[in-house]
Amino acid sequence: MSAASTKPARRGIPGRAFFTALCLGAGGGYLFFRLHVPLAFMLGAMLATTIAALSRLPVGIPPALRSWMVAVLGIMLGSAFRPSLLSHIGEWGYSLAGLGLYIVICASAGLFYLKKAAGYDRVTAYFSAMPGGFNEMVMMGGAMGGDDRTIALGHSLRVMLVVLTIPFAFQALPGYDPAGRDWSLRGLGPGLLDLPWQDYAMMALCAAGAPLAKRLRVPAGMLVGPMLLSAALHLAGMMSGKPPGLLVAAAQVVIGASIGARFASVPLVQIARTLLVAIGLTILLLSVTLVMATLLHLLTGLPLPGLILAYAPGGLAEMSLVALSLHADVAFVATHHIVRIMLIVLLAPPAFHLWRRWAERRGAPPSR
To answer: SS3 for 301?
Structure first.
């Protein structure tokens, strides 16, 4: 079956499903916000719509709306690239170089686990084990004969588990001070009327980078395009503002609700079975993340919280929002996730062909 089964139908989202998802997402986000939960709007929206989807209520978020909310996030991320950042980029060399080793370890460990413990076929296990590149892995895995529905569901559940785990686990790290945070919308960004019209004009210009990057087939183009334009304008001193807090909260609600709505049309039995597999894989990948982050922290002196977020096997948009919520170095985290996705998208297909030839020469059955 198609991977589209784990996402909103391509023919469009019914108005009732959209309205339900939006109301539940906003309500769940606001509740978590009032409870001072980290990443409140995204987590609240994600949990509310997930429960609704599993209860077989009609929920759905139009892909176009999610894409443009991701573009808003890209503009926000670009605002973290200040001129003072240029003097520190050289310090990221070892951590960026370590991403290649991280991908190899995660993919190898995940592949072994999914084949031996979960019984996945060779193609499905390979593209499910990749720590990133959701859309690309689903499309490539399906094209090469894998179960694209299982790949999509596995990646969705992994992202959800990582997003649910990290904000709460961070509270155990030294230096995390929830009492010292701004628990208001202004903690997410300025007020709607606080920005001059010039900044709004620049943000509209940055948003134009989304369709351009998508046309150029840039991985995660709806986020990367606006982020690169926003970063360039901020580094050049031509722009100093960032999206209003209300708009950032709305982006969190839409992105969170879209994660939960992916489970609306999936049989509960399949969700339960894949969830058990995803929990094991997530624990495995997060363990590798923690070890790599700790080693790099000892080697480079870079902050451990930022390294954990930079290496965490969650989605680019989702982990960038986590970094924003936890007041980590957003530019550092986003840059590492973009590089990781590009490495996976560029190297995973040729590596798969080489691995398949090697396995066939050893006499392994084609489907295993």
So the answer is: coil
Find, among 76, 86, 87, the residue nearest to 239 by Cα.
76
User: Sign (positive/negative) of CA torsion 108, 109, 114, 117?
Assistant: positive
Measured CA distances, 162 to 43, 308, 318 (Å): 11, 11, 9
Domains of the chain: 3-172+182-361 (1.20.1530)
Burial class of residue 115 (count of CB atoms within 10 Å of its CB; 0-12, 13-18, 19+): middle
Q: pLDDT (tens digit, 9 = 90+) per residue, 127-160? A: 999 998 888 898 888 888 889 889 999 999 999 9
At which residue do the structure tokens 């391509």 appear?
10
Q: What is the DSSP string of 110-165?
A: HHHHHHHTS---HHHHHHHHSSS-HHHHHHHHHHTTS-HHHHHHHHHHHHHHHHHH
Count helices and strands (H / E) in the chain: 15, 0
Phi, psi angle pair for 137, to nearest 5°: -65, -35
Rounded Cα gap, residues 310 and 312, in angstroms: 6
Q: In the numeric block, which tokens belong to residue 352? A: 């798969």
Residue at token pair 């895995």: 141
